[in-house]
Batch of 3 targets.
Target 1
Amino acid sequence: MYQFRLVRTISQRKDVFAIRYQVYAEEKGWVETNDSGLEYDNWDHFSTLFVACNGEKTVGTVRMIENSPLGFPFESSVPLPSDINPSEFYEVSRLAVIETERGQRSMILVGLVRAVWRVADRLNKKEWCAVVDQPVSRLLKLLGFKFRFEGKPVFHLGSLSVPLICTMEASRAILFNKNADKLLANHMEEAYEN
C-alpha cells in the first residue's frame, strides 16, 4: 500500500536526494553525476520535501518551494506574471519516481501533489507553478488540470519543458474529486500523514 508523507528525518532527506540522483543523473542525464550519489540544490534549503512510499520503500518524491532570496526555479525559464504575490505562491518541482514504479506514475503524481496541496492550503497559498517535461505536462492535462498560464516549451533541466501556473482552487477540483479518489483508492492506506 502507498503512503504520501512529509519528509521529517535526515535519513528520509537522503532517500529523496538518492532517488532524484537515480532519475535525474543516472537515468535521464539531466544533471551531472557525482561521487555522493545524491542530487540536491540550493532551493532544497527553502523546500518542504515529500515522499511516496510503497510499504517501507521510498519510491517517489516531490518538493514544494516557497519564496526565498533565490526566488523560484521557475523564473530561470520564464518571468513570473506581475500579478503574482510571492508570499501566496509556491513551486512544485523535482518530481521523481523510481523506474520500477512508473506503471503507477499517475497515482503517485496525484498522491504527492495532493499532499503538497494540503500543506500549501494550510499556509494560505493561492497559486502554484511548475516547469515540467512535456510527458508530465500531457499527463497533468489528461488528469484534468486547467492552467491559468501555460508558457511556450523551454529547455529546462535537460529536457524540453512547459512552464505552468495553476490556482489552488482549480487544483482542488482535480485532486479531491471522485476520479482522483478512485485512482488512489485501491492503492493507498491514506493520502497524507501529518
Target 2
Amino acid sequence: MYRLRDWIDPKRIEWHYTFKNPNSIDYVEMYVYKNHSSKDIFRHTTLERPNRLYLDYLCNNPNPKAINIVEKYIDLADWSWLSCNPEAIELIEKNLDKVYWPYLCLNPKAIHIIKKYPEKIHWSCLSSNPAAIEMLEQNMDKIYWPALAENGAATHLIEKNIDKSIKKYASTYSRYTTAIHLLEQNPECIDWMELARNPHPRAVELVIENRRKIISLQYLSLNQNQVAIDFLENSPILINWFWLSCNPKAIHILEKYPYMVDYWQLSNNPAIFELSFDFTRDFLDKRCNIYKEELIQRTMHPNKFVKYEEEGYELEEIFDFI
C-alpha cells in the first residue's frame, strides 16, 4: 500500500490532483469507502463541482484499479480523458458512441478501433501515437509535424523530412528525445530553453556545457534525467522551485527544502506517495494466516507421518520445522 510521505503536509495538498496519480489509488479507495455511505461523492453538478473533478482526474489515471472505480460511476465519467487512457480500452470498446475521437487517436491501445473509422481520425493527435506509425507512413501528407516530435517511433520519418520537422518547429523538437542527433547536426535549430527539459543524456550534456549561453535554465528543473537532478542538487541557486516541485525524480531535494516547495505543483507529483513496507508486511501476514490453519491440518494429518518416516524424516525434525 502507498502512503503520503511523512514530511508532506496533507492539509496543503490539492487532493483532486492526486486522483490522477497511479500511486494514490489506495488513498482514493479509502476516500470512496469513507464517503460512500453518506452520499454519492461524485454526483455533484455545481459550477465548482469539486468532487466531480475527482472523477475527471481518475479517468486519466493509468492505474487499472482507477478504471475499476470509474466503472462504478460510468454515467458520470469524463469520456475525453477515458478515451486516451490505455487502461480503459475495454470500457471504450463497449461505449464507442461516447468516446472523444481526438483523444482516442492518442490511445496506443485503440489502433484497431481507429482503423475501422478512418473518417473520424484526427491526424494531429494520431501523429503523436507511437502505435500508429504504419498508418502515418501510409498517409505522410496528413502528418502534423509538431505532434510527430512526441512520437518515439517516428525518428525515421523525422530524419527524412528535416525541413518539415526540425527546421520548421525547432522549439517543439528541442524538448523531445526523438531527434537529438538531428539537432546536433543542425545546432542553429536548437531552442536551448526547451532543450533544458529534454531527458536525453546528450541533451543534458549539451545544456550543462552551454549553460552560460542559455537565457533561462528554468525548465531544467522539469528534467528527470539523473545527471540533471545531480547538477541541480549541487547548484540549488539554479533551481526553479515551481517546476521542480512536480518532478518525481527530485523528491529527495524537495524534502531537504520543504519551505521552497510549491504545493500546487507538488500535488501533481507522483512521488509524493511511497510504498508503506510496514503495511505490506502486516497485510501479507494477515493474508497468510488465512491459509495457515488449513496448511497445518493438511501437513500434520496422521497419514502424512507414515510418508514422512518412509522418506527418512525423524519426528523431532518435523516438529522443529513447524
Target 3
Amino acid sequence: MSAAIADDSVPNVAIEWAFVGPDVRVSRYRCRAPQPGRTEEQSQPWHVIAFPHAGAFVHHDARGAQVVDAIGVLFLNAGAPYQTSHPFGCGDCGSALVLSADLVCAAAFTSARGPLSIAIGTGCD
C-alpha cells in the first residue's frame, strides 16, 4: 500500500489513522461536505470497507444510489468514481478498513482448496 497517498486526497473527508500497516490501515473519518447536495465526482485511492457510526448519506455510483448509515457497510473500490449527497444533514462519521490491492486479490480469489481459477474484471493478476 502506498504510504505516499496524502490523508487529504479524498475531497470533503477528514481522515485520522488509528493503525497503519503494509497491507491494512484503520481510520476514523468525518465527512466535511459543506452542503446537502450532490458532491463532485470523486474516488478513493484505496480499497475501503467503511463502517458509519453516526449520520447518514446517499452514495451515488454507476449502479444507482443507496442510503448508507450506521446499520450498513459501504465497500469502495480504489479508483471507482462516485458522488455523495446528504439529504439528512452533513457531518456523518465512522471508521474504515483500508486494504491493499494485493490483500483484496488474495482474499477474493483464495479458497480452502487454493486460488480460484477464474478472475473476471477484477484487475488482479
